[in-house]
Each structure stands twice: as structure tokens, then as C-alpha cells.
Amino acid sequence: MLILSILTLCIIVLSILFDYRKTIRGIKKGMKMFINLLPILLLMLALVSIVLFLIPNETMVKYLGEGSGVKGWISAATVGSVALIPGFIAYPLCGILIKSGVAYPVIAVFITTLMMTGFITLPVEAKFFGWRTSIIRNLFSLAAALFIGLIMSLFL
Amino acid sequence: MKELKKYIFPPIFLTFVGLSYIFRFPSGKQIGLNFWMFFKEMILFLPLMFILIGLFDVWVPREKIENHIGSESGWKGTGLVILLATLQAGPLYGAFPFAYILWKKGCSIRNVFIYLGAFSTIKIPMLTFEIGFLGMKFSLLRTLITLPVFILIGYLMKWYLKDKDFEVKQP
Question: What is the pTM of this model?
Fold first, then answer.
């Protein structure tokens, strides 16, 4: 975060030195996009915080921990696709899951869906790519996650 | 009317959280705390990113991007977008605006989706985290298996969108 702030600041200064007007135009453009996206982002974050409240970590551990059978895979894919958990929470959580006996391939499915598919972020994604394309991308990613888990189970 | 609908939900939500605090409703407070956690992450990170995107837009000429990662760029272009994506950080919804600007500057459809795949699964800052909690073997294996899979998704998306008039819209 700090690195990004410093980087941004340096780039702004550099850009101003080269062309003040162009810089202002660029910043305005970026900010306009941000403001336009803000309402839907807030909506998404509100949904995420409600979902995270309804499914706390303990519940996730319980569901994913139910053996490594089909049930474990399905819950991993479902929770992973719906939830939006930042990496700094997700990885420690996965560490706990492993310790409580969840199989590695199930973790792989969980992590991959968590990162690649986001059904809650769909409204935001659709703003850029349109609904159809976004849904297709998410479905492809979901299939990919299951496939990745399957291959992982051959090795681990 | 549509404009109004767009802006009406956040105030309702915030009122709900506010009332939960006043009336000591614990569930509402917890939801509020969750929201604050995500909001902090977003409000610090996204404005900076959008400034960078805006500057990228005014400074970087289209031909440059098109030559390197456009539809004629082949494997070198794919390698470049993957490299670009792995060096970034942040949640997936932060990648969409960047995908938009890449597309606007002539990045091919395939590479846009490969970029999203790489961004979401093999960011280097996140990998260090993953290795720490899940071990080298798991992380390495997952990365190696995931890499060809999201490249395939790039091709699949290109194939799916080939006569669909696809565009990445400006929000």
C-alpha cells in the first residue's frame, strides 16, 4: 500500500513536470471512472459484509472439513465462488483448514474459486464486460477450479 | 429514475449500520465492522489505481500497446500480460479497470482475459503469503497447473466472443 502511494506520487510529479495539462486530464479521467463505479462498489461491499457475517469462519471450517468427498469439493467451490475474502485472511484460513484435516485438492479448489470467480462481484464485472460475458467467464473459471483440484489430487 | 436507484442503496445500508450502533444490535454492528474492513481496503487502494489508469490513458500511445499485446502479438504478448499481472496487487475488482484500459489501448481479447486470470491467481505478493501458509510444494504445483488453465480460458473467451461485437465498457 505504501509502495503504491509512493509510486503514484512519483508518477504524478513526473507527469506534471512533463505536461501539466495532460496530467490534470489523466487524473480527472481516472477519478471520473472511480466516482461512476463507486455506488456499485459500495453495494458490492455491503453484500460481501452481510454474506461474511452470515457465513463466519467457523462455519466455513465446519462445511469444508466434512471429509474430502464430493461434499467437501462442492462446499469448497460454492463458498469460494460466493465469498470475497482478501488474501491476507484467506491464506491463514486455509492454513487452519489444512490443520483441521481438509485435503489439499479441496483447498486448491477453494483458493482458485475464491480468486478467479466472484458471483458477488458480478455487478461490478458486468459494468465493464456486460452480464453475459461476465457470467461465462465466471463459469469457465469455476470449471477451471474444479479441474485444477482434480489435477492436484493426482500429485498430493 | 435509474440514476436515483443507483444511489439509493448505500445510504439505506449505512442507516441500517448506524441504527444498529445506536440500538446496540450486535449483528448489524458486526456487518458494519466487516463493511469497514473492506471499505478501508478499497478506499485507499482504488483512487490511486484510477489515477494511474487515467495517466496511463493520456500518456501511453495506442500503437505501443497494440504492438506488444495486441491480437498479432503471439506468445510474447501473452508472456507480457502475465508478467504485468503478477507484479500487481489487490482484489480482483481492481483488475477490471486495468483490463478496460488495456483493451482500449488495443490489447487483444485473449490477452485481456489471460491478464484477469493471471491477476487473480498468481500475483507475486500473494504467492509469498501462500507459500508461508500452505507450503512451497502446494503453491508451486498450484501455480504450474493454473498457468496453462487460464491461458486456455483466454482462448475460450476469444472463441466465444469472436463474432459477438465484444467491447470493454468504460464505467
Answer: 0.88
